[in-house]
Amino acid sequence: MKPKVILIGGSAGAFNPILSVLKQLDKSINIPIVIILHRLKNTTSSFETILQQNTHYTVKEIEDKEEIKKGFLYSAPADYHLLLEDNMCFSLDASELINYSRPSIDVAFESFSMVLREKCFGILLSGSNHDGASGLKTMAENNGITIIQDCTEAEFPMMPKAAKTICNKHKELNTKNIINTLNNEFS
């Protein structure tokens, strides 16, 4: 069964791999992509503008109660946890920090996985804490497709290493092979 969404989580060192993936993603692919990146709150960011310059998708920062649509690349807003509701709409939450972060990659991965089960495709990239490891494990347990960035390639390998430590079901791929996997799976 084909996934309904691609989720990409990361923190320190994840920005350049995200851009590489977007630049080399086959133009025929239009499955929704959701990026959960640890970002500074209360600062102006050109994150969405830079993403738009590197993809054929329409880039949009997520708004509460917005329906997820094909052809869009969504970014989780700073200082909000991201959840998916059963009606395929996003939900934003300002509850406490999880793993020192809001948005928490774990919260998003777990929420999407509980709604979509095996129809999730999750990628966990570079980062300097354990956020995302538990959520990616939940996704793998629900038979979603899960990938971690090659720990020897990741600028900050703590995130992918944490995911690898608690679950051995994830594929460990370098950026080039992540791109090839996405293009083979969805084009």
From TrEMBL:
SUPFAM superfamilies: Methylesterase CheB, C-terminal domain. It comes from the Bacteria. The active site is at residues 11, 38, 131. Keywords: Chemotaxis, Hydrolase. Residues 1-187 form the CheB-type methylesterase domain. CDD domains: CheB. Gene3D superfamilies: Methylesterase CheB, C-terminal domain. It catalyses: [protein]-L-glutamate 5-O-methyl ester + H2O = L-glutamyl-[protein] + methanol + H(+). Its EC number is 3.1.1.61. The keyword Transferase does not apply. The keyword Transcription does not apply. This is protein-glutamate methylesterase. It comes from Flavobacterium zubiriense. The lineage of its organism: Bacteria, Pseudomonadati, Bacteroidota, Flavobacteriia, Flavobacteriales.
